[in-house]
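Hi L., both proteins are below.
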Amino acid sequence: MSDARWLAAAAALAARARPESRPNPGVGAILVKHGKVIARGWTQPGGRPHAEAVALAAAGEAARGAVLYVTLEPCAHQSARGPACADLVCASGVARVVIGCMDPDPRTCGEGLARIRAAGIEAAYLPSLACARSLSGYLVSRRLGRPEVTLKLALSLDGCMAMANGESQWITGPEARAHTHAMRARADAILVGGGTLRTDNPRLDVRLPGLAARSPERWVLTRGAAPDGWRALPSPEAIGAMEGVQYLFIEGGAVTATAFLAAGLVDRLLLYRAPILVGGRPALGDYGLARLADAHGRWSLTERRRLGSDTLEVYESSLCSPE
């Protein structure tokens, strides 16, 4: 396989770390020798050991002469919780290192690769979209000082999220709802508006076998106090103060979705479309577009798939890019 494909494989492996690796990023690492994987690793719960440390420990002496593929530049700073991964790499005997993302952390940025090269090991930075997407929450939090925000909307064909009387369970079918639960399991925090909380009293947990422990923290958008088991966010702009949150998942309702869009704080859209016509309550209100022309060019389709009778479309914002 090519370097790019090995990096994509490491990025897929990194998904196992999310979100339990927080406050550290979820990183994936693969050791390859003679075209075969000899070891792999991902960031462990609580952030340590790092992916490289896990893979190198698993390989032992077999790491000598191998190629290490890692989604993020190996860390170069010392920590009481463990050694710098760049130093572990230097001592491992690997012949080559390929990374998919530079680390924006000023304690490492460029220093990790420099230290590895100074040890006589070939080290290459190969920009990888797959790696960047696997680290999106970490990269956004480092560069923009806030979590990555994913807005989920379950819609009818006519853009409604509920009947005129407010009934909304269920717009989409069981396959789409199961997918939503899988997305919840990848988030650090999940947020709804005060109206949704009062009307629906949602559980917002993960109800998939084996993943219940990955239910995210529950937040409500309100200027008042949050009920027991919830945390309050006074405004969309306050997300930068959500300590330890890299991935924020927003599920409702229309007022909250509109507020985050109006603030320019939505990085990713998950649109679950059901093949039904409702003629009820629209999913969004006026979020401040002055002209229709301003709506174009803001979103790029990155994925489309069928989920039972429903369709999922994933869009990324061109306005919130951390680059």
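That was the first. Here is the second:
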Amino acid sequence: MKDHTAPGVSSEPHYAGTTLTLGIADGIAWMTFIQADTLNALSPAMAHEFLHACKLLSVQDELKALILQGTGKAFMAGGDLHALRQDTEAAVAAIIPPMNQAVLLLQSMPVIIIARLHGAVAGAGLSLACLADISIAAADTRFVYAYSDIATTCDLGLWHLVRRVGLNRSIEIALLSRGFDARQAAEWGLVNQVFDGAELESALGAWTKRLTALPLHVVRETKALLHQANAATLAEQLAHEHQCFLKCARRPEFASRIDHFFLARRT
């Protein structure tokens, strides 16, 4: 995969670390893992920089979407096993707590998270893919958890995985460590769509363009409603939807979009 940046993002990124970069333009943020020589394995340095980048994103008031992607042959091929084997206690302390903090921070942000997946999506990479609100994958993408293969449990993503594919499928993915391809991931609900070759780039461009065109408050209110739906009772959810609809309908964009809809039908 080539190094992709958002249309309109300047050559100077918002943040340039040794393991990832962050570019922001027109309401879209692009976080790109750049450790292609290690297949973007999650190292202590990457965990630190990931948290730092998420903190920078958390103060962006006009942000609508965040795109996660990797350079080279993989989105992310799991954790840094060399660091974990060399000094397990230190590596775990340097990776998991900052990543947990970053995941909680991302979950709280009123932005749509899009994962652009290709190559290997393994271990922590699969957890991050599950975190995304929307995932699109190249046809050659391969998924695997593989934590049980190294005699440990999963981190960063079981909460999201169970909500995406259910308990039985999650047990299969987490314990059998059997790899699966992008088509299977789409059937199981782990990715939204699968694309061949250059179609992935055009689809990503079309989706980000669509998100950019939406009013910011619509993106934020819709994501909030969707994320609280699992925890709310039906009565609570209906009441929340009523309140949010009315809040949006009171804004000038509502009348303007309706007028545009009728105008388009007459032409």
